[in-house]
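User: Just a sanity check before I run the rest of the batch. Below are the structure tokens for the first item. I only need the designed sequence back.
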């Protein structure tokens, strides 16, 4: 009898210990989940206040990205979060340039882009091999780099922003549209426009309409093209429509069939975007993408018009940090010297 009582006491003891353990775990788990919920509760509000801007910083032209960042930051009171994208061997240099210059006050993240995602998707033959650099395709992979934001701005590195970036961010995207671009047919008049030999502003300039695959798209060759150097993107729609997968599909088709090339339109990253976004994009105010400043060293905009422009884009071969170039005085004023002394200006004003 005494033995049975002792066994019951032992069993009761273990039962109490087990119940206490279960109760502790429930209480502890509830506390942890509440803490995680409390930590996350402020995140959406904080993200709503941020304007994410994606810009690439390539090794040989890192000064371009820094000048663009400086111009954006200096012309707004908005809370900007810069996503500065680079390849692995440049990440420490990007961080050093920002942290050891006047840009040290900006809010930024350095993001690595893995070029292996492009394996087998790019044709090696190009009249302009610099356009085949991996970072030129970062715009295809925005959702893989930016995870927490609903709306994102992507900018090429050869731009200067003269307006408040908040205005560009507030661009309205129509229901079902994953991105907004500036139409090439909306370009304002240029002085010496006849000097823009070879400038393309229709699909004919980017797609090879001799190929059956292109004909089967049913897109008129006279359709206005757009320039993807300035993008306002809706990440939810981008992912929902699987835009990245669509772009990769057209990159692979080009490898197989040579549907377009940089020798035709000058932009190997533009052609697949023209196909995927045809008839399914919103438009950006033309003053937020004044481009072709790098097309010819002899082509100039009026000074008055340049003052009205919100964003200037030196797309083309003639970059404002190099020689020859035009309107580079507007770019020089935003240049941030390289703390490492590697990037140097070679334009006529330097």
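Assistant: Here's the designed sequence for the first item:
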């Amino acid at each position: 009898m005494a033995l049975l009582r002792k066994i019951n006491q032992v069993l009761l003891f273990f039962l109490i210990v087990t119940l206490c353990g279960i109760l502790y775990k429930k209480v502890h788990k509830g506390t942890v989940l509440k803490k995680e919920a409390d930590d996350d509760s402020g995140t959406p509000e904080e993200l709503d206040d941020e304007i994410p801007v994606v810009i690439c910083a390539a090794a040989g032209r890192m000064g371009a990205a820094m000048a663009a960042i400086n111009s954006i930051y200096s012309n707004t009171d908005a809370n900007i979060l810069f996503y500065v994208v680079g390849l692995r061997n440049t990440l420490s240099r990007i961080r050093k340039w920002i942290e050891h210059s006047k840009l040290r006050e900006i809010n930024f993240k350095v993001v690595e882009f893995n070029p292996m995602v492009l394996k087998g998707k790019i044709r090696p033959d190009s009249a302009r091999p610099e356009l085949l650099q991996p970072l030129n395709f970062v715009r295809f992979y925005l959702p893989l780099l930016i995870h927490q934001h609903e709306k994102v701005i992507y900018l090429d590195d050869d731009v200067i922003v003269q307006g408040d970036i908040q205005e560009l961010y507030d661009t309205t995207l129509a229901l079902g549209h994953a991105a907004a671009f500036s139409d090439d047919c909306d370009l304002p008049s240029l002085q010496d426009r006849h000097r823009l030999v070879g400038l393309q502003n229709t699909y004919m300039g980017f797609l090879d309409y001799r190929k059956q695959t292109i004909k089967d798209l049913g897109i008129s060759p006279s359709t206005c093209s757009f320039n993807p150097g300035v993008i306002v993107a809706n990440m939810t729609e981008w992912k929902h429509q699987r835009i990245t997968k669509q772009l990769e599909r057209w990159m692979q088709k080009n490898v197989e069939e040579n549907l377009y090339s940089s020798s035709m339109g000058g932009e190997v990253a533009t052609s697949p975007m023209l196909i995927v976004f045809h008839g399914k994009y919103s438009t950006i105010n033309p003053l937020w993408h004044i481009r072709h400043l790098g097309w010819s060293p002899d082509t100039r905009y009026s000074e008055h018009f340049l003052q009205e422009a919100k964003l200037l884009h030196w797309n083309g071969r003639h970059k404002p940090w190099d020689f020859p170039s035009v309107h580079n005085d507007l770019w020089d004023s935003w240049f941030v010297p390289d703390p490492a002394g590697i990037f140097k200006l070679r334009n006529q004003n330097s």
